[in-house]
Amino acid sequence: MAEPAALGTDAPRSGAQLGGDAGSDATPSALPVVDGLVPESDVDFRGEMEQFPAGSIRTGTFRLEAGRYLLICNIPQHYQQGMVAEFVVR
Predict the structure, then answer these.
(1) pTM of the complete model
(2) Alpha helix (H) residue ranges in 1-90
(3) In the prediction, which pLDDT does 9 show?
(4) Is 28 a residue whose pLDDT tops 70?
(5) How far apart are CA 76 and CA 64, in angstroms?
(6) Which of 69, 71, 59 is nearest to 90 (CA)?
(7) How far is residue 53's CA from residue 63's CA, in Å, rounded to a whole number?
(8) Nearest Cα residue to 54 out of 35, 73, 79
(9) At 44, phi and psi to the nearest 5?
């Protein structure tokens, strides 16, 4: 299963660590985690897709402004196991 979620981030690729708030400076390795999930209320949440089975392909559309973003899987433990990708919208 996968459940992709898009998060906004202004973090540089060098991996600056979080301050006290994960709203705009989250990095792939520094998001807050509670009970195996990244709480949507603690990050700059931009949208998500419904869960889908492993091995299948889904597409989704997110309206994003120019900036840095993370795409994470927010099924318990998946983010911590490395299901995260950083990307840039220009």
Answers:
(1) 0.72
(2) none
(3) 74
(4) no
(5) 25
(6) 69
(7) 24
(8) 73
(9) -85, 75
Report how far residue 35's alpha carbon sits from residue 26's, in angstroms, rounded to the nearest whole number: 19
Nearest partner of 69 among 49, 44, 88, 48, judged by Cα: 88
- Greatest alpha-carbon span in the chain: 37
Q: What average pLDDT does the segment 54-78 reach?
A: 90
Q: What secondary structure letter does DSSP report for 79?
A: T
Which structural domain, as residue segments, surrounds residue 8? 1-90
The domain total for the chain is: 1
CA–CA dist 20, 8 (Å, integer): 16
Percent of the chain with pLDDT over 70: 76
Q: How far is CA 80 from CA 58, 62, 77, in A?
A: 22, 23, 5
What local confidence, expressed as pLDDT, does residue 20 receive?
32
